[in-house]
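Two quick folds needed for the group meeting slides. Do the first one here.
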Amino acid sequence: MSNLEIVKAIYDAFGRGDIPFILSCLDENVAWEKWHSNHAQMSGVPYMQEKNSISGVIEFFAEVAEMGVKMANAITIIGDGNKIAVEFEIETERFGYEEEMHLWEFNENGRVVAFR
């Protein structure tokens, strides 16, 4: 499976609540929400805190579940090679509707090593 196909499969899995599939795509030392000058992290937003392991990503999905996801959709998926960008829309009970950009990075073995 190409990295692009893996990302598509990850969003399909999220839509059906298949978090174990998503976790199976991750490198054990995945850098989740790790990026310079993240103002949401500095403000203490729980689900935006940096995670550096699969167990940390499990915590992330537990926090997302508490938001009451009503709809989630990958609008556009762009890229090839080791970086894939996704235009994403989500609606939750807690925050309503919003659009986001996601960036996935893969290692040479096709495992997700970074997500932001």
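Then this one, please, same format:
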Amino acid sequence: MRELSIQIKVTPVSQMRQEVYRFTADEFNFSPVPETSEAGRCLNCNKDITIDLPPENVIADFLPGRFAIVEFTDTRHRNIQIGERKLPAIVSIFPNLNSAMLKIECKMLKSPFL
């Protein structure tokens, strides 16, 4: 488990209104969970993160879920990337009253910490 920066960068794989979306999150930790499936060993990188409420048009863009690459930085200023172009994460945003939930769904073949 690693402590991470509260700044999250989301880069969509396909064309969207912005090339990069930036969000500010509450403090969170991230620890991928090893899994075995029919396809072999992988790391489950699913994570729900509470973020500041983004504008309505951004929520509408991500409500159905979008393929994207999610990046954040740890306390040692190393970049951690969830998803890649060939196997992106699915990112959704669900609004609450004063905040929103950034839902990341991704299975990776290698650790995002490498």
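Slide caption for protein two: The first helix runs from residue 56 to 62.
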